[in-house]
Amino acid sequence: MSLEPVLCKMSINDENQLPMHRSPSKRKVLGESQQQNIIPLPQEQIYKKDEKMTKKVEVEPLLQESSNRFVMFPIQYQDIWSMYKKAVASFWTVEEVDLSKDLGHWEKLKTDEQHFISHVLAFFAASDGIVNENLVERFYQEIQVSEARSFYAFQIAIENIHSEMYSLLIDTYIKDFKQRDYLFNAIETMPCIKKKADWALKWISDKVPYSERVVAFAGVEGIFFSGSFAAIFWLKKRGIMPGLTFSNELISRDEIYNSENPFDFMEHISLEGKTNFFEKRVGEYQKMGVMSGSNHTFTLDADF
């Protein structure tokens, strides 16, 4: 049987033989349906809705866009404002720290003690820059509440002072240029510091909710820093290096404010009743626990 008579009666542009005056959107080009159905799809796959696209996203109250962020008053969160005012009242500069006696004490330390303390300072010098990177790139831009923005803005300034202090300490104690350069580039030269830095840096670009990232950086400042603060306090107990130990008091006090910044979800990672292990007169330090073997597991039942 020849197909020529049949094909002559059909329009090459109209598989369904609909009149040409019908809307083009209602006519199918010849072979269109056949081409689409070469690989048949399950019916449920065709019509299944993407749950991620339809799920309603709840916005953290502190992140809800508001033009009120451009003015300070009225204060919405008194606890955050109070923490900001405490931080401002504790402002200090590196010029207040006297390092005149430190070098003599440093030269009397054993070689392994110098190695230990220099690595602690190298960790701190790099870490404060990472904290600021997160504040500038993420937290300050995301937050919409004026008092919280004020706290973050002030913290950025304070972290700069911390970074300057640690750099000055390294510059004062380490006279060998190559060794100094090695310490200043600890993120690249020291595997143990690089691992901590990489862990912190990944949270800056992570797409997880703001609340999770806050907990992560509370861990950076409240957990990673705590052991290094304790190491410097060990020198204070020996009555040596007064400049270093005094700067440690000032910086650790600042980190209290950063770790205690009273967002609701911070209550889940603070430990009530823990006594400051490095200097009681500086303030009460809320230790949030230490990390277990897993990089993503926190425990709150450990003590230092």
From TrEMBL:
InterPro entries: Ferritin-like_SF, RNR-like, RNR_small, RNR_small_AS, RNR_small_fam
GO molecular function, one term: ribonucleoside-diphosphate reductase activity, thioredoxin disulfide as acceptor
One GO cellular component term: cytosol
GO biological process, one term: deoxyribonucleotide biosynthetic process
UniProt cross-references to PROSITE patterns, sorted A to Z: RIBORED_SMALL
Domain of life of the source: Eukaryota
Pfam families recorded: Ribonuc_red_sm
Record family assignment: Belongs to the ribonucleoside diphosphate reductase small chain family.
Entry protein name: Uncharacterized protein
Naturally occurring in which organism (per UniProt): Octopus bimaculoides
